[in-house]
From TrEMBL:
Purpose of the protein: The globular domain of the protein is located near the polypeptide exit tunnel on the outside of the subunit, while an extended beta-hairpin is found that lines the wall of the exit tunnel in the center of the 70S ribosome.
Organism the protein comes from: Candidatus Aeolococcus gillhamiae
GO process terms (BP): translation
Family membership noted in the UniProt record: Belongs to the universal ribosomal protein uL22 family.
Name of the protein this chain belongs to: 50S ribosomal protein L22
């Protein structure tokens, strides 16, 4: 069962928050919170709060065991931009964009499913067969 928690109008950019969320998706909640505690980014605190809230929702509303919960995914959406201006020389103004984000954390008690990833083929070294005018042929690695 997936349980969700939402934090709206978080005063961070969506791009910075997505950098943090990529590190904790698929991990157990306790492990994700430890990683976020020691992540040196300001958005880590906001993401940790949303994950804690989702875990608390799962325990309180659905009687799920907190030790079996894991972070299914964390969605980050850009919210409205608060626009300000700063006076500049010669009567002009410079724009200041204070970006905000909406965070949504999903925790689940289901077992993780293995992802079907396409494995890249192992590249074998290419060889070029050269034959001199007379004599046996020999193989040499091709230049890259």
């Amino acid at each position: 069962m997936e349980v969700v928690a939402t934090a709206k109008w978080v005063r961070t950019t969506a791009r910075k928050a997505r950098l943090v969320t990529a590190t904790v998706e698929g991990l157990p909640v306790a492990e994700a919170l430890v990683i976020l505690k020691f992540t040196p980014r300001a958005a880590a605190r906001d993401v940790a709060n949303v994950i804690k809230s989702a875990a608390a929702n799962a325990e309180h509303n659905y009687n799920l065991d907190s030790s079996t919960l894991r972070v299914a995914r964390v969605e980050v959406e850009a919210a409205a931009i608060i626009k300000r201006f700063r006076p500049k020389p010669r009567g002009m103004s410079g724009s200041i964009f204070k970006r905000t984000a909406h965070l949504r954390a999903f925790v689940t008690d289901d077992e993780p499913t293995p992802r079907n990833r396409v494995r890249s083929k192992i590249r074998m070294p290419r060889t070029v067969v050269t034959a001199p005018a007379a004599g046996p042929s020999r193989e040499t690695p091709a230049p890259r």
